[in-house]
Design brief:
By secondary structure, the chain is α/β, with parallel strands linked by helices. It has six helices and eight strands, in the order βαβαββααββααββ. The protein has a six-stranded mixed sheet, with helices on both faces. The N and C termini lie far apart (122 Å).
């Protein structure tokens, strides 16, 4: 018989191709936690860098100009007050020169404000600071007396613009004394008490108001004045905390704990 051809060798079945698993859905990373803004507590701090624009203020032989120096200090102060949780408003944040009335109007727009005007003297002992509260040259007018009457009384009336600070003289003087004590702790040769003086920026402010003046533009090196910025900042923030402790809040200024209101 004729031989039958061998059947073709069977090929082993091919291994099934590995199935491609569907792409894994990645869970998106949670968004970065955004720190909550500081809680605004206590009064609104109005910082007034004096002069500006064509009014340079005091000028030193080394080229220091008061209007520029006080604006630098004001921005430094704003940053620290805001870090402590206060709302802060500057009467100017550029090389402008608002009128006295405009500066006062900025403060008077807030029902609970503290006004701080910054100056640099043309003379005086270097590295010292002086605080002023307003002093009128004449007694209160009848209109001012009427405005001080209890709300709702028949004699209640609007306070004349130029008399706005008169109702706050005692409070402003008390705040000025607090500021001067804090300045004295940081600028040891400074006067021991504040002074009443007719600082024009303060007259129309319907709130506790002080002016702080550093000495002086006569320093031979601007860095000597720059170095006063940090202790000035700490003195003013500490003074406000002592004058108007923030309710149910506490802060820390240069390593010194500030107790909450009512803390013993």
């Amino acid at each position: 018989m004729a031989q039958q051809p061998d059947p073709p060798a069977q090929q082993p079945p091919a291994s099934p191709a590995p199935q491609t698993s569907p792409a894994q859905t990645q869970t998106p990373a949670p968004p970065a936690t955004i720190p909550a803004p500081p809680v605004r507590v206590g009064p609104t701090i109005i910082i007034d860098p004096a002069h500006g624009g064509t009014d340079n203020g005091a000028q030193g032989a080394s080229g220091i100009v008061e209007k520029d120096m006080v604006l630098r200090f004001a921005r430094q102060l704003r940053a620290e007050f805001e870090r402590q949780g206060f709302r802060v408003v500057l009467t100017r944040n550029d090389d402008s020169n608002p009128s006295y009335e405009d500066r006062a109007a900025t403060a008077n727009a807030y029902h609970d404000a503290i006004f701080i005007s910054l100056h640099v003297a043309s003379t005086g002992k270097l590295g010292t600071a002086q605080t002023y509260s307003y002093q009128y040259s004449s007694p209160a007018t009848q209109a001012t007396d009427a405005a001080a009457a209890p709300a709702g009384s028949a004699s209640r009336s609007l306070v004349p613009w130029e008399e706005a600070q008169r109702l706050y003289l005692e409070t402003s003087h008390r705040f000025a004394d607090l500021v001067q004590v804090q300045l004295g702790l940081r600028f040891s040769d400074s006067p021991s008490t504040s002074k009443p003086f007719a600082v024009r920026e303060l007259r129309s402010v319907a709130a506790p108001a002080v002016a702080v003046e550093l000495s002086s533009v006569a320093v031979p090196d601007a860095n000597m004045l720059y170095s006063m910025g940090f202790p000035l900042m700490n003195a003013l923030v500490r003074s406000v905390q002592l004058f108007r402790p923030a309710p149910a809040a506490s802060g820390n200024i240069s390593g010194v704990a500030v107790p909450a209101a009512g803390a013993k």
